[in-house]
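User: For a benchmark we're assembling, each entry needs the component sequences followed by a predicted structure for the full assembly. Here are entry 17's components. Please fill in the structure.
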Amino acid sequence: MIPNTPPITPELIAEHGLKPDEYQRILDLIGREPTLTELGIFSAMWNEHCSYKSSKVHLRTLPTKAPWVIQGPGENAGVIDIGDGLACVFKMESHNHPSYIEPYQGAATGVGGILRDVFTMGARPIACLNALSFGAPSHPKTRHLVSGVVAGVGGYGNSFGVPTVGGSVRFHTRYDGNNLVNAMAVGICKKDEIFYAAASGVGMPIVYLGSKTGRDGIHGASMASAEFGEDSEAKRPTVQVGDPFSEKLLLEACLEIMAKDCVIAIQDMGAAGLTCSAVEMGAKGDLGVTLDLDKVPCREERMSAYEMMLSESQERMLMVLKPEKEEEAEAIFRKWGLDFAVVGETTPSLRFVVKHQGEVMADLPIKELGDQAPEYHRPFTDSAKPAVIDAASVEPPHGTIEALEMLLASPDLCSKRWVWEQYDHIILGNTVQRPGGDAAVVRVQDGPKGLAMTADVTPRYCEADPFEGGKQAVAECWRNLTAVGATPLAITDNLNFGNPERPEIMGQFVGAVRGIAEACKALDFPVVSGNVSLYNETNGKAILPTPTIGGVGLIDDFTKSATLAFKCEGEAILLIGGNPSWLGQSMYLREVCGREDGAPPPVDLALEKRNGDCVRALIADGAVSAVHDISDGGLLVAIAEMAMASGIGAVLLEGVAPAHGFWFGEDQARYVVTVPAAQADAVIARVTAAGVPVSRLGTTGGDALSLVGERPVRVSALRERFEGWLPAYMAGGV
Amino acid sequence: MKAAVLVFPGINRERDMARTLRLVSGRAPAMVWHTEGELPAGTDLVVIPGGFSYGDYLRCGAIAARSPVMDAVRRHAAAGGLTLGVCNGFQILCESGLLPGVLMRNQNLRFICREVYLRVERSDTPFTRGYNAGQVIRVPVAHGEGNYIADSETIARLEGEGRVLFRYCAPDGMIDPNWNHNGAINAIAGILNERGNVLGMMPHPENHVEASIGPTDGRGLFAGLVEALARAA
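Assistant: Structure for entry 17:
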C-alpha cells in the first residue's frame, strides 16, 4: 500500500502538475502539509482540464441565455426547451490526448463520457456526432490513428445503441502530434424531469453505481493538461478502457430509477472520477461529503485511497438517493447486473472527508476545492492580421473543371463515407437525414418535430484570424442548421488549442472566444455547454486553433426538412447571398495552388442572419427543392455535391470573372438552392424583396456538369473521385 | 398478431422492432426479459432483435443463447411457432442451435452500416409472403459480424431445400461479390430452419418501414407475418 503521508517534495508536487505557487495556495488554504491523497485530490481538481483556470475568465464573456435555455454551462450538459414539454440535452467534449496515445480506447471512452453526461441529466441519448482532426495523410502515424479512432467511436456508439449521425474529419500536418477527437451527444427528456448534480439534505446516502473501480486512467485529467514530448507513448496506462455494454446497462438502470423518483442528485464519474463527482455534488449543494472507500466496489486488489480517488475507470456514477428508496433503487441496479454501494453521506460540515480502513485519508474544505482553484489572466498577444488576397492576383494553375476534380479528391473535401459507414447511423429508427448533408436531422419521438444537429469549425481560418475564425465557426454551424430548414437554438463549444502559457496561443484562444461570443449574440445562438482542451502541443508545435461548434436546431415538421440533392431535371439553380470572390485561406488556394495564406473570408453577421432567415422561410414554405450552403471549396464544390448526391447533372451559366474566385471563393452567408423552373421568377422576386442578392446559376439536368468554355464532366466520374480518395488512402494506396 | 420481443442485456434495437411491430400490426408486442422462463400465453411470434447482447463478449450471441428465455423459445419453435432473429438475433439463433452455421467478422474487418439490396428467393413462406419471389428490396445493415458460413454439407442442404430466403445482390438482383458487403458464403443474408418457422437474417427490415423516414421495403416482411398469422388463427 502506498503510504498516505510521504514527504511532499518539490518533485512530487511537480509530478502532480502543480506549480510552486499553486502548492503554496494549497498550504495557505489548509494551513498544513497535504497528505498524498489530498495532494492527488488537489491535482485532480486544479488541473487545467477540470478547473478551466486559464480559460474561465474568457468563457464568462460568452452569451449563455435565451428564453429557451433551461440550463447553461456548469452542469453535466446544457438543456434547451424544444416545446411539447420536452427538453434537449447536449454537450460536446474532447478526448484528444488519450486518443493519440491509444486511439481505439481513447475515442471510445470519449464517446462513453459524453453519453454519460447526457443521460446523467435524465435524457435518453438520441444521437451522437463527432469532429475529428488528424495529421497530414503522409505522416506515418495518421492511418493508424484514423483507423483506431473511427473504430473506437463506432465500437462504443454502435454497441451502446445510439446513432452517430454527423460530424467532420479533417487532415493537417499541424495535428501530426496531437489528433483531436471531439464527441457530441444529444438527448431528449421531459422538461420537468431533468436531474442535476447539486446534492440536498444532510445525512443523505451517497451511492456508487455502475462498473467497479480499477487502476485505469489514474491522472488522466492531468495528462490531458500537459503537452506531449517524446515520452507520450509511455502515458498509455493513463488511458481508460471503455465498456459500452456496461454503459448501456447503466443508461437503462439510471433512467429506470429516475422514473421511479429515487434520485436527489446525480453526477457521472468522468475526469478525475470519484474526486470530481463527489466534490461537485457537495459543493453545488452547499454540503459536505464523507466517503468511506472501504465500500467502493474495486476490481483490483489492494487499491489505495489515492488510487481510488484518482481512478478514471469508466461507466460509473455517483448519486444522492432518497433514503426511503434505497431498496427499490438497489433492486433495479441488481436487475441490470450493476454494482450498487452506499459509499458515503452528505454532511453539514462543508468538509470533504475521505476515510479508508478506519483512517481519515483526506479532510479538505469542499467549496474551496472548486471555488479557490487558481484562475489565471494569462498574457496574450493578438495574431498579426494577414493581408487580403485579391482573387485577380492569383494565377489559376489549372482549368476550372480540373481544379474541381482536385478539390473533390482532396483529403478534407472528399466523401467521408468510409468513416460514417462504420457508425450505426440509423438505429432507433429516427434518422431523417443521414451523414453527408449539411446537418443531420433526427425525428423527435414520433414526430412531427425534428432536431437538426451539426459540428463545425474551419481551423485554417482560425489560425489566420482567430476572431473571424471564431465567428465563422458559429456562423457555419448556424448556416448548416438553416440549410436543412431548422431554427438554430443553441450551441456547445469545444475549444481545442495549444499551450496557453504561450502568449500567442493564448491570443488565439482569446480572439476565437471573442469571435464566438460576437456571433452567438448576433445570431441569438447561446452557448449552453462546452469543454476546453488546451496543451494540444508536441515538442512546442501546437495544433491549428480548433474551436469546434456543435449546434442544435429545431424543425417543426421533420418531413419538410431540406436536403442538398438535386431533385429532378429542368429546375433552376439559384445562388443566394451574392457572387463569391474570396480566395484567401480557401481550399482552392491550398489544394490547387499549394498556398495557405491570406486573410480568411470575413463574416458579416447581419448579412448572415438576413440571408439565412430568408432561406429558412423559403424551406418552410416549400418554395425550394434542394438547399446547400457554400463552405469549404466554394460554389462549384457545393453544386457538385448536390449533383453527386442525386446523380443529376447541371448546365451552368457563365460565372463572374475572375472564374476561380467565383467558383471556388469561400465567401460566407451564401446558399445554393433549386426551384421548379416555373417558380424561379417568383422566388427570385421574393428573395430580392427581402433585400438578399440572388442570381441564376443554371439548370439541373443530364448526367454531367457543364460549364461555359470547359469540357463537361460526368457526375459519375466526379463521384468516383469524391468517393475514392479515403478508401484508397486507408488501404495504403495513396 | 401476438408478438414477443426478447430483451437481453445489451440488446439495443428492441425499441425499433417494437415500434415497427406496433405500426404494422396495430398491436404493441410484449417485451420479454431474458430471465423469464416462459413466453406470454398466446405468443404467436417471437422476435429476437438486434444489438450487442452481453456486449458481444465471448462470441456474438453465445451468452444470450444460454439464457433461460431461450429454452422457452426452443419450445415455441419446436411447436411450430414463428420465430424471427435479426442481426444479433440471427447470431443468437445460430448459437442456440435453432439455425445452422455461424456469423464471422465481415470480410473487410470493419463494422458496416449501409443500405443493401436483397433478393427475396421465395415468397411462399410466412416471412416473405409480402414479397414476390425474385423481388429486390432495399434495407439497411448495421453489423460487424454478418459473414455467414457453414460447412459445405450444410450449405448444400440449405440451398437444396430452398432455405436461403434472402441474398445480398446488386440493384438489378444479380448476385455479385461487389454487392456482397460482408463476404457471406453464397451471399446469404437470411436463412430458414428445416421446418420453415424460424428465420434468421442480418439486415434490419424494421428500420425501413416508414415513408417519412426513408424507404419502406422492410414493411412487407412484417405485413406478411401479420397476414400469415391472421390466416392461421
